[in-house]
Amino acid sequence: MRPRIILLLVIAAFASVSFCFTGHPEAAWPLAQLDDYLLNILLMAGINVILAVSLNMVNGYTGQFSLGHAGFMAVGAYGSAAITQIQGKVLLETFGFLGAAAPVFLFSLAVLAGGILAALAGLAVGLPSLRLKGDYLAIVTLGFGEIIRVMLQNTESLGGARGLTGIPPRTTLGWTWAIAALSVYCVGSLVRSTYGRGFLAVRDDEIAAEAMGIHTTAYKVTAFVVGSFFAGLAGALYAHMICYISPEGFSFMKSVDVVVMVILGGMGSTAGVTLAAIGLTFLNEVLRQMQEYRMVAFSLLLIVLMITRPQGLIGDLARFLPGRRRLKP
Amino acid sequence: MSALLRMQKVTVRFGGLVAVSEVDFHVQPGELVGLIGPNGAGKTTLFNVVTGVYAPTSGSVHFAECEVGGEPPFRITARGIARTFQNIRLFASLSVLDNVICALNLHSKSGFFGALWRGKAFRAGEKENREEARKLLEIFGLADAAHAPCRSLAYGDQRRLEIVRALATKPRLLLLDEPAAGMNPTEKVELMKLIRFIRERFGLAVLLVEHDMKVVMGICERIAVLEHGCKIAEGTPSDIQRNRRVIAAYLGEEVSNA
Fold first, then answer.
1. CB nearest to A195's CB, from B78, B112, B166
2. Cα separation of A75 and A57, whole Å?
3. Beta strands in chain A (DSSP E)
4. Are B101 and A194 inside 8 Å of each other by CB?
5. Which domain does A102 fall in, by range?
6. Which of A12, A23, A68, A274 has minimal Cβ neighbours within 10 Å of its Cβ?
7. Is A321 a domain residue?
8. Angle separating helix axes A216-242 and A69-81, nearest 10 degrees
9. In chain A, what is the straight-line distance between the N-terminal and C-terminal CA atoms, in Å?
């Protein structure tokens, strides 16, 4: 079966679960039996998959080291919350004719708006800063993430430092994993094309890529915009999952968390990064019992993994397998 | 016949240093031209002006009657000038086939939304690209290694792959930056055959920057010699071999005791 068809089926399955059971996520079958704790972990895992896969587009496939992913996530989170919470009442009345479907419709609109706002932010940051390379780009993106955070902290209409409360709980497993599947599909199929080989060419050797007629700046900005679009979607899902967002939740450490997932999974391996995002989400919970030693154990694990498998969990394991036909659409 | 590449009074200055000074130079369609000179003569700088890495400080560069001086490299490549690198610059993490496919991008219809939607036209285009890349690899005897990582190729094969990749951009002028560097005598003979073959088969002009005199004298129809950023001689290989200024530039002048 074509990957596109598989994807559509997967998304349809997730979405139908979502649409049938609107309202609070717990209501969605077959999760009525799931307790809140496990449900939240599963939601967080899905959101982390979206974040890691989208960052992998920038850091892994295009080789541009970005440290500002949390910033784009914040743009998506606040942007979507502005629609469902701040303007929620007014908009719900506007779409009142949709009846029971109105909240879900508004939510889908909010998620999309979050993604688009983040993509625009990505474009605004990417255009000037992608002329920089390596460490310099990392510092600029890090700075951008902090600017977003400080701006949010000082914008009273968005809750300021206190954060934004009362966001309706709309994120369901269906929504989260449908968008996660979409991100995996989009990044995967972009890269697996003649056009997409350009991203890898930019990563491997920018000068040679340019000499082969590849518009390297356009590629880098495209990767950045795609990455931030999905980060925005993830932010929107996150906001409607925990129902409370504050600028502190989108600090530099959140960006680092995502970078760790990408590095651990293997730069430029969508499968590896997906596994790492799920694995680290669960590991985080397992280690919670160790309380104050949690971060120590976490860091130790990272060190050991980096020494034994610097290319990441999967890394280039999947590449160059004999007889494997690459680039087959 | 109008020249394919015409450089007029090209000067490149880095601060106070004049790397290339008022050089006039041209390449006719289908011609095999060599550019030589001692170390630091400005060969690579001139090469980089043609490929768009540097913009000329003054003077003009015309390719196929269009002013191209100062355009970015990817646009110059789109106009039909392809190049190889002195130190091999393949896309290290990609397979041999993918290296060529990257260069096919320029003339491929594959785009962002096509790659996402993966419709019929897209799949046909991808198939076409793969076949074209394979065909090119076959011509140069690299088809068996198509799926191998390009790093695993032997040195000479990597050089050949770089040329294949450059040819995939469908150039009218191919620039080779010291293709014989690091090759043994047998490989050099192979290289000379290869360059002649490419010119015949693809009907393009070749500009060769090279240190190795045997290679340059052996295949070039016309040679230009640079020294200290100025063109000191131009002519057929035998002319150049007898030119006193060239000999002086390479070997130094005789000290006259008279």
1. B112
2. 19
3. none
4. yes
5. 2-250
6. A12
7. no
8. 50
9. 11
**Coil/strand/helix, residue B61:** strand
What φ, ψ does residue B28 adopt, rounded to 5°?
Answer: -85, 155
Extract the tokens encoding A3.
Answer: 């990957």
Is A117 in contact with A235 (CB distance < 8 Å)? no
Q: Do B129 and A194 touch (CB under 8 A)?
A: yes
Residue A22: predicted pLDDT: 45
Q: For residue A210, which amino acid is it?
A: E
pTM for this model (two decimals)? 0.90
On whether residue A289 sits in a domain, the answer given is no
Length of chain B counted residue by residue: 258
Q: What gap in Å lies between CA A214 and CA A199, rounded to an integer?
A: 9
Asked if residue A242 is part of any domain, the answer here is yes
Long-range contacts of A274-280 (CB under 8 A, 24+ apart): A274/A49, A274/A52, A274/A53, A274/A184, A275/A313, A275/A314, A276/A52, A276/A312, A276/A313, A277/A45, A277/A48, A277/A49, A277/A51, A277/A52, A277/A53, A278/A45, A278/A48, A278/A49, A279/A313, A280/A48
Q: Do B122 and A329 touch (CB under 8 A)?
A: yes
Residues of chain B neighbouring A329 (CB-CB closer than 8 A): 118, 122-123, 126
Based on the structure, what is the number of domains in chain A?
1
Amino acid identity, residue B196?
A: R
Of B51, B111, B112, the CB nearest to A211: B51
Q: What is the pLDDT of residues B72-119, one digit of tens each?
A: 999 999 999 999 998 999 999 999 999 999 999 998 887 899 999 888
Q: At what angle do helices A270-286 and A294-308 cross, to 10 degrees?
A: 150
- Bond from prior residue into A310 cis (ω within 30 degrees of 0): no
* Span B142-176, pLDDT tens digits: 999 999 999 999 988 999 999 999 999 999 999 99
Is B103–A213 a contact, with Cβ atoms under 8 angstroms apart? yes
Nearest CA in chain B to A226: B112
CB-nearest partner of A204 from B93, B101, B125: B93
- Structure tokens of B143? 């088809």
Distance CA B165, CA B168 (A): 5
- Is residue A269 in a domain? no
* B97 and chain A in contact, CB less than 8 A: yes
Contact flag B116-A200 (C-beta cutoff 8 Å): no
First to last CA, chain B: 49
Give the residue from A163, A83, A198, A64 showing the smallest Cα distance to A122.
Answer: A64
**Is the pLDDT assigned to residue B1 strictly greater than 70?**
no
Q: Which residue of A has its CA nearest to B126?
A: A194
Listing from the earlier edge strand, what are the strands of the sheet with B222-227? B81-83, B173-177, B205-209, B32-36, B222-227, B230-235
Q: Please report, for residues A62, B24, B63, B75, B164, the alpha-carbon distance to residue B30 in angstroms, rounded to integers and kept in the order given.
A: 37, 19, 14, 22, 18
CA gyration radius, chain A: 20
Residue type, A140: V
Query: Shortest CB distance from B102 goes to which of A198, A215, A222?
Result: A198
* B230 contacts chain A (CB < 8 A): no
Q: At a CB cut-off of 8 Å and minimum separation 6, what does B37 contact?
A: B43, B225, B226, B227, B249
Residue B151 DSSP symbol: G
Q: Which residues does A contribute to its contact with B (CB < 8 Å)?
A: 2-4, 186, 189-190, 192-198, 200-201, 203-205, 207-216, 222, 268, 316, 319-320, 322, 324-327, 329
